[in-house]
Amino acid sequence: MRAIVNGTVHTVAESGTIDGATVLVEDGEISAVGPDEEVEVPDGAEVFDAEGAHVTPGLIDAHSHAGMAEWGEPEDGDFNEVSDPVTPHVNALDGFHPRDDELKHAFQGGVTTVSARMGSANVVGGIICSMKTYGDVADRMLIREDGMKAAFGENPKRFHGDEKDRQPSTRPGVAATLRQALMDAEDYLRNRDIARENDQQFERDLGMENLARVLEDDLPLRVHAHRADDIATVFRIADEFGIENLSIEHATEGHVLAEEFVARDVPAVVGPTISSASKYELRNITFETPGILHEAGVKVAIQTDAPVLPQEHLDVCVGLAVREGLPKEVALRTVTRNPAEILGVEDRVGTVEEGTDADLVVWDGPMFELDSDARQVFVEGERVYDRERDDVDPREEYAW
């Protein structure tokens, strides 16, 4: 058993923020949390004195390629299966590499969970997985399959239209490609049901089985979309096929359509916003987007799209959003409870509550302030990072 005592604990739950609090950890889970005088630390427990520092849930990045993209190295870039623009049969878990350095940097920076996904080359990219950032076997790091990746805009047009000279080469082509895939899935579902009712043999198809889960609301549709017109097209297609369980990823111009997000109860996973607008569809990028969406009533999470931005700088992205209008009191929520709820993993991560995983970060200041740093990080109760113990002098690590 372990205990973190004497901390300012931000539970991101009904208990709110508790000054002078203790968090008890047993068998990888939080067994108790409350004021120091109300939580008894058992004899023999390993005690960590937070010395008044801030204790938060481990941060969650709801849109990442950490573990998949290997810092963009082509030798290990297992996140875009570009053999076809529609690849619902692939699963991010099969390409997740626990030894990716991006994951090490993630947990050292307080990010303990990522939604690892295929890239945005394909209109339908494959199954996405919520993963812990610390571990040695992907299966044990898996929390759950949390969605089906789809992508609109410039990326699928470039990969397939410009480079492969095939559909989609236009935005209407992207929309038509997704519609056709969903129509094929509807037909597949109908034929499968008929075969089962008549006790007939039926040839299964892995991709159609996965897309059927989207139509049956078992698997959320998570759509890469920057421009407002692309976001509107996603909403249009979702309405056509009765898809209610979806999220808009990036949402660069989401602030333009805030009321549409609210009307459909669709969350926005915003970012990466530290950018020089490298694509035309990013020309209206701004850190004001999270604050505008939040004020409108949209559930907002902030992302890095690692390795587009370094995974460990998720807290910096939150700080810049605060500077541009995101209320300080909801800042932590955008990288803890909100992404946990969007991903459907709130029963395990995103809050400091009894029964949740003991993924915890001890910060030497408010998480979103630039001069704050992770002092200690725990994943399922294991102390995976200690700044005094683990930090190295970069001059000593430099290789000529």
TrEMBL record:
<feature type="domain" description="Amidohydrolase-related">
    <location>
        <begin position="55"/>
        <end position="383"/>
    </location>
</feature>
<feature type="compositionally biased region" description="Basic and acidic residues">
    <location>
        <begin position="155"/>
        <end position="168"/>
    </location>
</feature>
<protein>
    <submittedName>
        <fullName>Amidohydrolase</fullName>
    </submittedName>
</protein>
<feature type="region of interest" description="Disordered">
    <location>
        <begin position="153"/>
        <end position="173"/>
    </location>
</feature>
<dbReference type="InterPro" id="IPR006680">
    <property type="entry name" value="Amidohydro-rel"/>
</dbReference>
<dbReference type="InterPro" id="IPR011059">
    <property type="entry name" value="Metal-dep_hydrolase_composite"/>
</dbReference>
<dbReference type="InterPro" id="IPR032466">
    <property type="entry name" value="Metal_Hydrolase"/>
</dbReference>
<dbReference type="InterPro" id="IPR051781">
    <property type="entry name" value="Metallo-dep_Hydrolase"/>
</dbReference>
<dbReference type="Pfam" id="PF01979">
    <property type="entry name" value="Amidohydro_1"/>
</dbReference>
